[in-house]
Design goal:
Helices cover 63% and strands 0% of the residues. The chain is mostly helical and 149 residues long.
Length: 149
């Protein structure tokens, strides 16, 4: 997914927990269809068994979810959840101050240091800009870069 992440296989329970966390980020400033689409794509593309809850069930249960670092087996999984949460915040075009605060709190709950959160956030922004770098309109890419911070 990103250069600082080795390929990581999440358990189905970790995928469900990560999806609920991402949904909480999306709900921070009003859930946007682009955020739901991103989370649904992650969930449905990652979960391995049909016997698990549907995405709609996960969406409904996300309000009652209490984050626990123990839901993830290692530091790399916890950092991946932080990265997915940052991506969720950006999915609607703006990683709002409220979303940033929410993801910082998630990172703290997952024992991800503030400096590491900043690195992950910058890497996500760099990755997003890299997707635009091939475009001939460098001025527009520069505007997007400025908007990302």
């Amino acid at each position: 997914m990103f250069p600082f992440f080795a390929p990581q296989s999440l358990s189905d329970s970790a995928i469900i927990a990560a999806s609920k966390i991402m949904l909480q980020v999306a709900k921070t400033d009003g859930i946007h269809p682009a955020e739901v689409a991103l989370i649904k794509s992650f969930y449905e593309g990652s979960i391995s068994a049909a016997s698990h809850p549907s995405f709609d069930e996960v969406l409904a249960a996300s309000a009652d979810y209490t984050l626990a670092a123990t839901d993830f087996s290692n530091e790399q999984e916890r950092e991946m959840v932080v990265a997915l949460s940052v991506m969720t915040g950006f999915a609607d075009g703006t990683f709002s101050d409220a979303e940033t605060a929410t993801v910082r709190a998630i990172a703290a709950s997952l024992n991800v240091a503030p400096a590491r959160f900043d690195e992950i956030n910058e890497t996500i922004k760099d990755h997003m800009l890299a997707q635009l770098s091939h475009l001939p309109d460098a001025g527009s890419v520069a505007v997007v870069a400025k908007e990302l911070g």
